[in-house]
Specification:
It is built from 17 helices and ten strands. The longest helix has 19 residues. Helix 8 packs parallel to helix 9. An eight-stranded parallel beta sheet has the order 3-4-5-6-7-8-9-10, with helices on both faces. It has a two-stranded antiparallel sheet with strand order 1-2. With 343 residues, the protein is of the alpha/beta class. It has a single domain, classed as Metal-dependent hydrolases (TIM Barrel, Alpha-Beta Barrel), CATH 3.20.20.140. It binds hypoxanthine and zinc ion. The site of hypoxanthine has 11 residues, from helix 4.
Amino acid sequence: MTETGTGVTGPTDSALFALPKAELHLHIEGTLEPELVFELAGRNGVGLPYASVDELKTHYDFSDLQSFLNLYYATMDVLRTESDFAELTRRYLATAATQGVRHVELFFDPQAHTARGIRLETVVDGIGAALDEAERDLGITSGIILSFLRDQPVDAAEIILSVGLSRIDRIIGVGLDSAEVGHPPSLFAHVFARARDAGLHVVAHAGEEGPPEYIREAIDLLGVERIDHGIRAIEDPELVARLAGERIALTMCPLSNVRLRTIGDLAEHPLRRLDAAGVRVTVNSDDPAYFGGYVGDNFVAVRDALGVTAQEAERYARTSIEASFAPDARKRELLSEVDGWLG
Ligand code: HPA
Ligand code: ZN
C-alpha cells in the first residue's frame, strides 16, 4: 500500500502493474514510440520533418483531439511493411506484458494505411503475426478490431468493411474513431448493421469530445456492446442510469483525456463517479506512446489523482475481462488469476 495524493493509502505501483487485466481500448498505431518512428524512417527511407527524437517530442503538446490526430496520422507514414506492423505490435506487447496485460483487443485504422497505398492484408498479417507470437511466448490472448474513420465518407467505411470481411478470420469486431464532433454515429448505422450481420462484435468511440447524444446513438443505432471513452455521459444522469441498467461497459482512458484536454485535470475524471453510479468502467491507455503512459501507468495515475482503492482497481480489472470478447473459458481463467491479486 502507498500514500496517494488524496491522503488515502492505495495499492503500490508494482501491485497495480501486476494486477491481471484486459486492455480493451488501444490503437496499435498509437503505440508508435518516437524512437521507433526514427528507426523505421531510416529503414524505409522516409524523410521526417524533425531533426531528432527530442524535437519530435516537442510536438506532443496537444490542444484537442484534432491536434493529436494530425501528428498521429503523419507519423504513421513510417509504417510501410508487414514486418513494420509486426515490430510495432511486438514492442507494444512486450511493454504491455510488464503492466499486467493478459488479453488485448486492439484497434487498427485500415483507411489511414490504404490511403497511403498499403494493403489492409499487409497491416493485419503483420499485427496478427506478433499477436500469435505473444500468445505463444507471453500467454497474452488477443483480438483485432477494425476501426472506421468517422471523418471520412461513409462509402469509404463500406468499402473497407468489404475488404476486412475477406480477412474475417483475423478480425473480431469493428469500431469507430477519429474526429468525433460533427460525425455522429447515426451516419454509420448501415455499415455497422452489415458488420453485425457478418457476426462481428461492434464498439464505437462516443462521448470523448462529442455530446452524450452520440453515446445514445451508438447504443440505439449502431448496437454497440461497449462505448469507448464515454466520459461525457457524466453530464446526463438519465444516460448514466441507462448505461448502468443495461450493463454497457465504458473503456476509459484517463491519461488520454488529460493530454487531449477533454478534462482539465485528472482529479475531475468521472471514472470513479461512474463506477459509484453502477456503470461498468475499465481503465485503458488509448495511444500510450503519445499520452504519457501504458495501461499500468493509467491505473497508477487514477490512484494518485482520484484515490482509487485496491478494491476498485480490482473491480475495473475484473470488468475489463468480463466485458472483453474473449471466450468464456479464457475469461474464467483470467478472473481466477485476479482472485489471487489482493492476497
Ligand atoms: N480518439 C479518437 N480517435 C482516435 C484516437 C482517440 O483518442 N486515437 C486514435 N484515433
Ligand atoms: Zn481511442
